[in-house]
Amino acid sequence: MSVAFIFDTTYLKSISICCAQIRPTDEIARNYLLQGMQFALKHCNEIGAKTEFVIEPCEGYVDMTIEKGNVEYSFAFFYYNPTICDPTPEDVEMPMVVTSVDEPME
Predict the structure, then answer these.
(1) Statement: the pTM of the whole predicted model exceeds 0.85
(2) pLDDT along the chain (106 residues), means of 10
(3) DSSP 39-92
(4) For residue 71, with 0-12 CB atoms within 10 Å meaning exposed, 13-18 middle and 19 or more buried, which class applies?
(5) Partners of 73 in the beta sheet?
(6) Do 54 and 62 meet the contact criterion of CB atoms below 8 Å apart?
(7) Measured between alpha carbons, how far is residue 82 from residues 21, 28, 29, 64, 86 in Å?
């Protein structure tokens, strides 16, 4: 997809890719994809677009966003993490407060 095509529209485009598991053989393809994302962001920045690049290596999450005018384009890839919603150790230590919907809050 060319950068010119991205901006030749008037709506939001969003693409996300989720991989089921992390494999050591993914490293070359993942690095190639990251390099392409960086190149696209640099080019878009040069033509006046606002760009954002988020990399969270511990979570295996990468997201790029490009905005120009009323167009926003987002591309992300990440690895499936079945424990992402599990409570943190801090959450486990905090006591849970339970209130009834019928009782007035103080």
Answers:
(1) no
(2) 55 73 83 88 91 84 86 83 69 59 52
(3) HHHHHHHHTT-EEEEEEETTTTEEEEEEEETTEEEEEEEEE--TTTTSPPHHHH
(4) middle
(5) 13, 66
(6) yes
(7) 10, 24, 23, 23, 8
